[in-house]
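Recall the central idea of this unit: under ordinary conditions, the amino acid sequence of a chain determines the structure it adopts. In this exercise we apply that idea directly, starting from the sequence alone.
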Amino acid sequence: MTTTTPKLTFAEYLKYNDGTDTRYELVNGELIPMSLGSGQHGAVVAFLYHRFRDEILRLKLDWTAKQMVIGVRSPRAGK
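Accordingly, the structure predicted from this sequence is:
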């Protein structure tokens, strides 16, 4: 017996919550668990966050910078 998992749409992916802290990528409709970032990932994220925040303040923009809470949709599937 073969079990198939239904493919998710991007809208379904955005709403998906399995009740765990696992973060997922959506690749060709399938959820792929993401590995934890390294210390270097954290350093890059912190650097970018602070640069964006500083520039927003300097330009007096009504914007906000968010550190690691927003996903990006990219066309990398199959690569």
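The helical segments are 10-15, 39-58.
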